[in-house]
Design brief:
Elements (H helix, E strand, L loop, with lengths): L10 E4 L3 H6 L3 E5 L6 E9 L2 E6 L15 H11 L3 E10 L9 E9 L24 H11 L6 E9 L9 H10 L3 E3 L2 H10 L3 E8 L3 H8 L7 H26 L30 H4 L2
Parallel strand pairs: 1-4, 1-5, 5-9, 6-7, 7-8
Antiparallel strand pairs: 2-3, 3-4, 5-8, 6-9
Helix pairs in contact: 2-5, 3-7
Bound molecules: zinc ion.
Amino acid sequence: MSLTTPSKPDIAIIMRSDEVIKKFNLKRITIDTSFGPVHRCYYGTISGKKVLIIYGRFEGQKVTSDAINAQQTIEAVANSGAKKLIGTFIVGGIKKSNPLGRTYIVQDLVGMGNYKFSCNQNYPFHNAEMFLPICRHLTDKIILSSKKMPFDINTNATYVCFHGWPRIETKAELEFYEKMGWDIVGQTLDPEATFARLYGLCYAAIAVQVDDPSSRDVYSKGDIKKDSKKQHMDLIKELRKKSTKLVLETIENLKKDSCDICCKLKRTNNSFKQFPEEFYKDSKDELYD
Ligand SMILES: [Zn+2]
């Protein structure tokens, strides 16, 4: 059975937090999209605000980053009626000076290419305006909330979106990114951010760093503990608690006010015509006269 959200969420969050779903007794709902239903949606009230949580980015099977249907997730958010969306991310570190566990508020992104727009003919192609890819208004709210966090947060991070499936970055790639001054690397911020823009959503992003060049170096030289996979998963769970804490603080401080910029940057192109209207007239009668 497909359900729609009972009333428009004040905010949507893409995050995996079993603790939040349990603590606030969020109910699972299904949201229909033109790609089919999205079943991993949780809805309820947190700090007096109506919140929609989308549990991660995979609908069913885990797939490589290029095969993630980011458009379906964004369409589910848009169909719920939410106008604000925060994406949360576990990312790789770039700078040797930034250790594992560091938390970031993303302000800009660099797309290293290799991703594709899915061919949903219900939503005609249009290039998104991404000069400023992140919503200033929503990001400012997160920055304000970050001041109350008991840990340091880089509030002006640049995220490199690298689609190198099925691998993560080489040492040379990380050194290149570091030279460019970029902070963190991952595979999912874009095209999620691009679709959010195309659908006119206010989009912001929080990331926590799960490794750094020196921990990758140690691991790659064979220092692999027997139960390292479990330790890694436990570490990710622990790190997610930082972005969850910041998200909850942001929800607490959320006001009814809204940004009037992102909705104007929505792009649809339903009136596309290959030729000007007058050229559609069939001229064969004249040719064969
Ligand atoms: Zn906005």
